[in-house]
């Protein structure tokens, strides 16, 4: 095997299979080389398609920011705070279900099949949202609620399916730069979707001469169907990664052992994601409402312009995090980002009455709080959730972690208005500061440092742990399928990934 040391990790696994079978003729090696090239092309397509598709997720997550303002102006009596919260939360509830279901199925069915399903759900939900109607206004809002739930199932499923496939593809294509690459094809599109949604809204609103509100929000929902459709063909043609084809567990998944091995990590990723989304989601959904409340003329166009600036200020944080992640590491980056909640949350909250009288200053400070959050937990949560878990359960654990985040977002959205009404608007920022402190503590005690090693290293440690505790199932699929203990390292690892004994496999 020394003759193939220079080939890529994915291709190396394929060539090992060829050598094991005893086939040394030129045709077989030519076939393996073709498979290698096809795998490399598939990895590239997976990375690009993941980034482009996640723009639609960011778009859908942030579209209601301005649509809430518009619907409140169009239906002043019918679009009550309860209806507004219900429509906004529908996406989050759908995302929670999608993250758990697709998280499980992308480990069982494969990344490709799951991505095709999530794309279809976003398109179907977007079409239904565009066509929302009813015998009454309330009936129309219920159809919009259901439609947004369907979209949420698709966008929620994108989190584990897109992120795990992008992480595995980047591991084989650019192992040394996979962290920045991962951030730029996951959190950057999600963050970019915010100002992009506002920009589309403003263009459509201007085209409609700042009237015909029903046309505005319907067209905006319809435009949201374009991005997932644009990558549907490429997702249909992609391959599952070499990591997945070797590490998948499709039968007799030892969930008890998984929990014993990853309990501490799950507390860290689930807890940190809950705190992050508890703050960032309601602030995203209701930021347009907050800004409109401090603008004197209450203009929808003026609110949208300030909202666009707010979203744009958050984007540099994503770039800064991508540049610094290799140097600082995802864990430190998360803690710095949560500290941003503490600092700017307290500044805005304690000086709310004065700072809201200077709208540019308020928007800048608000944007800086979100920018630091994007640089820290926004960038790092997906990264650590895809790196810390083995391939066989990566989608499941990622989906559970992200679902806890969206549960935090749903709860935060639900309590956001009552907090404003009963405690005052400044308390939404003070509570954000408190969540920042909790986020730092959870990250410090429960999130492990990510080493940057090839993801196969963690896969092999996990397999060794399962074998040491009596699991003897099959792993992988197609050409890379093998029994659990085939090729595991000589050391057996406990749940803290510490070698406890040796074995001769």
TrEMBL record:
Location(s) in or outside the cell: Membrane
Gene3D superfamilies for this protein: MFS general substrate transporter like domains
Pfam families: Sugar_tr (PF00083)
Bilayer topology term: Multi-pass membrane protein
Residues of the signal peptide: none
Residue span(s) of domain Major facilitator superfamily (MFS) profile: 46-451
TM region(s), chain numbering: 90-110, 116-135, 181-204, 216-236, 257-276, 306-326, 333-352, 358-376, 427-447
InterPro entries: MFS_dom, MFS_sugar_transport-like, MFS_trans_sf
Keywords assigned: Membrane, Transmembrane, Transmembrane helix, Transport
GO terms, molecular function: carboxylic acid transmembrane transporter activity
Recorded family membership: Belongs to the major facilitator superfamily. Sugar transporter (TC 2.A.1.1) family.
Name of this chain's protein: Metabolite transport protein
Organism expressing this protein natively: Aspergillus homomorphus (strain CBS 101889)
Lineage: Eukaryota, Fungi, Dikarya, Ascomycota, Pezizomycotina
